[in-house]
Design a protein that fits this description.
By secondary structure, the chain is an alpha+beta fold. 44% of the residues lie in helices and 19% in strands. The protein has helices at residues 9-23, 27-42, 53-62, 90-108, 125-132, 186-195, 215-220, 228-241, 251-258, 276-279, 284-300, 308-320, 327-334, and strands spanning 4-7, 72-74, 80-84, 110-119, 137-141, 148-149, 163-169, 172-179, 204-205, 211-212, 222-224, 266-274, 323-326. The longest helix has 19 residues, at 90-108. Bound molecules: NADPH dihydro-nicotinamide-adenine-dinucleotide phosphate (NDP) and pyrrole-2-carboxylate. NADPH dihydro-nicotinamide-adenine-dinucleotide phosphate binds next to β8, α6 and α12. It is an enzyme of class 1 (oxidoreductase).
């Protein structure tokens, strides 16, 4: 088997739709998930592209998700958009709430969207880039399952808890970063396991609390946060903002909810958006230029901006009309249709 196969966006979406409907997702959720996975794969996001179809299938098999849930946006007259995902996957809820968040941010200067009662498996950059595409700055956070030990701890209390931020740039790709607050995302450890590769040092401990580079021992033990106590504190902040603040579950509670059944974590998602026109007091153009000066100074020394690799992959894959996907992954995804 050759190492990679070439898939066009249409082939990726088609494969995803077939798998998702086969395992039990209704057409609205299947479409939202398939579009997201295609978008991520076209950016060469390996841990949260087509690979995530396994997690979507496992989530359905676990029996707790509603594959036909219709998210409800609650009416509000303040700057908070609340969307009840009704026990479905988060993506449809995000799509439904997005226009309300954009409108409230333009009205109030700052607004937030709290998505409740959702299963969540996806990368966060598409959420924040949907807002930077509207000329707004945004950040997003979610908990996950309690796989990650706090700094100095020996067992999982925290989630892999990604934090994403996007800043709109006139005529250019936005400044975006999106990463787990664990040293590695869980999906990345799963990919190391599939590839039979050892992890770098400092990513995980085994179930006895000893440092390990064995992906399976890491999955059975606990992951570590990036940046020691600093990443650990950021991760706790994400638990609080995307959990108790918005009346939803922490990673510990999400893990308890799953009762060992596997699949995507179940919790909330918080997205905060800022309107630069209002924050800059009418001096957006001048302030944008100051931000550009900072980016130029970073690039000038040979450093790269976060998401630069991803945008380059997007440009390359879009121009040639396909992305390269591991042949083994493609083979294993087709087997989900059996
Ligand atoms: P990575 O470590 O792969 O990358 C994190 C970010 O850092 C990216 O924006 C990346 O840009 C940037 N970056 C990487 N190297 C450099 C560099 N040398 N200089 C500047 N910037 C750099 O991310 P993770 O593995 O931690 O997370 C992957 C995905 O997993 C994320 O999209 C995240 O949302 C998702 N995730 C989702 C979870 C969930 O519960 N839903 C849980 C955990 C993670 P670039 O892409 O251009 O390389
Ligand atoms: O990669 O850590 C992860 C993850 C958790 C939920 C979805 N992705």
């Amino acid at each position: 088997m050759s190492e990679t196969v070439r898939l066009t966006p249409e082939e990726m979406t088609d494969l995803s739709l077939k798998v998702l409907s086969h395992v039990g997702y209704g057409p609205d959720h299947a479409q939202a998930i398939a579009e997201l996975l295609t978008t991520c794969q076209m950016d060469d996001c390996q841990s949260h592209g087509l690979f995530r179809l396994f997690m979507c299938a496992q989530t359905m098999q676990a029996g707790k998700i509603d594959g036909h849930a219709q998210p409800q946006v609650a009416p509000s007259d303040n700057a908070i958009v609340r969307v009840d995902a009704q026990g479905g996957m988060s993506l449809l809820a995000f799509q439904k709430g997005l226009p309300h968040l954009v409108e409230k941010t333009r009205t109030h200067g700052i607004a937030a969207m709290a998505i409740n009662r959702c299963f969540h498996f996806s990368a966060l950059w598409p959420e924040v880039e949907a807002l930077s595409a509207e000329g707004l700055a945004a950040m997003a956070m979610v908990p996950s399952h309690s796989w990650v030990a706090p700094a100095g701890g020996t067992r999982g209390s925290l989630g892999t808890n990604p934090l994403a931020f996007s800043w709109p740039r006139m005529g250019k790709d936005p400044f975006t970063f999106d990463f787990a607050t664990s040293a590695f995302a869980r999906g990345e450890i799963e990919l190391y396991k599939r590839a039979g590769k050892p992890l770098p040092e400092g990513v995980a401990i085994d179930k006895d609390g000893n440092a390990t580079t064995d992906p399976q021992a890491a999955l059975d033990g606990a992951m570590l946060t990036f940046g020691g106590y600093k990443g650990s504190a950021l991760s706790i902040m994400i638990e609080l903002l995307a959990g108790p603040l918005i009346d939803d579950l922490t990673s510990l509670e999400s893990m308890e909810f799953a009762q060992g059944t596997g699949g995507a974590p179940y919790h909330g998602d918080i997205i905060i958006a800022f309107d630069p026109d209002q924050f800059s007091g009418g001096r957006r153009q001048a302030n944008d230029a100051r931000a550009e000066r900072l980016f130029a100074d970073i690039l000038d020394q040979g450093a790269r901006l976060p998401s630069q690799r991803r945008f380059a992959a997007r440009a390359r894959n879009t121009a040639r009309g396909y992305a390269e996907v591991s042949a083994q992954l493609h083979h294993d995804l087709l087997a989900l249709l059996d």
